[in-house]
Design brief:
Elements: H1 18-21, E1 40-44, H2 63-75, H3 78-88, H4 99-119, E2 126-129, H5 133-140, H6 146-160, E3 166-171, H7 175-178, E4 187-193, E5 196-202, H8 203-215, E6 220-222, H9 235-240, H10 242-246, E7 256-259, E8 264-265, H11 268-271, H12 274-278, H13 287-295, E9 301-304, H14 310-316, H15 319-322, E10 327-330, H16 339-356
Parallel strand pairs: 1-2, 1-9, 2-7, 9-10
Antiparallel strand pairs: 3-5, 3-6, 4-5, 7-8
Length: about 375
C-alpha cells in the first residue's frame, strides 16, 4: 500500500472527507505554541536535485527503502532493470542527467524515502512536491495508485526524451527583472523564491539569454537538465501524453496535496483533471509561492524526502522557519559522499522527528 496510513488506495472509490479540502491547519498546524508535535509536511524534490549515487547507501541497508525502490523498478518493466543498473554503477551506460535516468530515479528515490518516513509511524498533514515530486505526492495522497503513477511517469519520459535539446538557468533575480530577457520560447519556468527564478527553453534560444544576463551582472547557474522543462518547448510532449493520463483513475487527495503548479492546495476538481497532470512538463513551477502559502497556515516540520537538500535550504530562508516557528530537515546529504553519509542523514532526520514526538520513530534504522 503506497498511500498514507488511514487512506484507501486509489484503486478504490474513496469517500469524500473533510481532509480532502481542508488546509493542513485543521490537522494541528495552528499559530499558537501548541501542546503536541508540529505536524509533518513531506517535501519532494524534482528535476535538478539528482546527483550520482543518490541514496545508494540506503539500498540493502534499509529494507523498507529497498523494497520500495525494487517495486518501482519492477513496475517500470525491462527499462527498470536498466535504470537500476545505471543507478548502482560508477560507470552507467546512460548518464544520470539524461531524462530517462533523472526523471525515473527522482521518482523512485522520492517515493522510497517517503515510504521509509511513513514506516516510522509519521502521519503527514500535507505533501508538497517540486516538478516530478508532485507525481510522487499524488501517490502518497491517493490521487494515483503507484502502478498508474509509474505508467504516467514512463509515458512522460518517453515523450520528453524526443523533445528538442534545451536547458534551465537559475538566476538570482526577481521575476519582473527578467521580463526584458524573455521570449516566446525562453520563459520563467520555476519560481523558488523572491529572487530565485529558473529560466527554461531550447538551448539555441537560452544560450544568448544567459550571455546577456551575465553581461548585465546577474548571477546565473545552469541546472542539471538537458531539456527545457516547464517551458513551451515541452508543450507538444505534454499534449501527447493526455490520452495516457485520461485513461488513469484519478481521485481527490487526502491528506492535503499542495501543488507547485497552482501555488496552493489542490481541489478535488483539479486533482482529477487529466489535463492538469498531462500539462505539467510545460507548465511553470511556483514552488516558492506554494511553500509560502503552506507556511502561512501553521507550524510544521518540513521533511525533504528526496535527494539533496535544495528544498530544505529554500525553506530555511523563510522567516517562518528561520524564526523556529517551523523547521526543515533533509533525509539525504546535499551531495554525494560515502554510503554511510546517507544513513547518517536519515538517522538525523529520524532523531529530529522522534524528539518532536512523532509516531514510533526508531532510534536506529531497522537492520537489513
Amino acid at each position: 500500500m503506497t498511500t498514507l496510513p488511514g487512506r484507501t488506495t486509489a484503486t478504490t472509490a474513496p469517500a469524500a472527507t473533510a481532509a480532502t479540502t481542508a488546509t493542513p491547519a485543521t490537522a494541528g498546524g495552528d499559530d499558537g505554541p501548541g501542546t503536541g508535535p508540529r505536524p509533518v509536511v513531506l517535501l519532494l524534490p524534482g528535476q535538478g536535485a539528482q546527483y550520482e549515487g543518490m541514496a545508494v547507501g540506503l539500498y540493502d541497508a534499509e529494507p523498507v527503502f529497498t523494497a520500495a525502490m525494487d517495486e518501482v523498478f519492477e513496475l517500470m518493466g525491462p527499462e527498470g532493470r536498466r535504470v537500476r543498473a545505471d543507478w548502482l554503477s560508477d560507470r552507467p551506460a546512460v548518464p544520470l542527467d539524461d531524462v530517462t535516468r533523472a526523471q525515473a530515479l527522482l521518482f523512485a528515490v522520492d517515493h522510497a524515502l517517503a515510504r521509509l518516513v511513513l514506516s516510522w509511524g509519521v502521519r503527514p498533514a500535507a505533501v508538497l512536491g517540486h516538478s516530478v515530486g508532485e507525481v510522487v505526492g499524488a501517490v502518497l495522497t491517493g490521487v494515483l495508485d503507484l502502478p498508474d503513477a509509474v505508467r504516467l511517469q514512463m509515458d512522460r519520459i518517453s515523450r520528453i526524451s524526443a523533445a528538442p535539446p534545451g536547458g534551465m538557468l537559475a538566476v538570482a533575480a526577481r521575476r519582473e527583472e527578467l521580463a526584458p530577457y524573455l521570449s516566446e520560447q525562453v520563459v520563467v519556468g520555476v519560481v523558488n523564491g523572491a529572487r530565485q527564478c529558473v529560466l527554461a527553453g531550447p538551448e539555441a534560444e537560452l544560450a544568448p539569454v544567459e550571455a546577456g544576463l551575465r553581461a548585465d551582472g546577474f548571477l546565473c547557474r545552469r541546472t542539471r537538465a538537458v531539456q527545457g522543462f516547464h517551458s513551451p518547448s515541452l508543450a507538444a510532449a505534454a499534449a501527447q501524453s493526455l490520452p495516457t493520463v485520461a485513461a488513469l483513475r484519478l481521485s481527490p487527495p487526502s491528506p492535503t496535496l499542495f501543488s507547485g503548479y497552482t501555488a496552493g492546495p489542490l481541489s478535488p476538481e483539479q486533482a482529477t483533471d487529466p489535463a492538469f497532470w498531462a500539462g505539467q512538463p510545460a507548465a511553470p513551477v511556483l514552488f516558492g509561492p506554494a511553500l509560502g502559502r503552506l507556511l502561512d497556515t501553521g507550524r510544521y516540520v518540513l521533511v525533504e524526502a528526496g535527494p539533496g537538500q535544495g528544498l530544505t535550504a529554500l525553506a530555511r530562508r523563510r522567516p517562518a522557519v528561520s524564526s523556529g516557528r517551523s523547521a526543515a530537515v533533509p533525509t539525504l546529504p546535499a551531495r554525494r559522499g560515502a554510503p554511510a553519509d546517507d544513513r547518517r542523514t536519515v538517522l538525523a532526520a529520524a532523531a529530529f522527528l522522534r524528539a518532536e514526538g512523532h509516531g514510533s520513530v526508531p532510534a536506529e534504522p531497522a537492520p537489513a
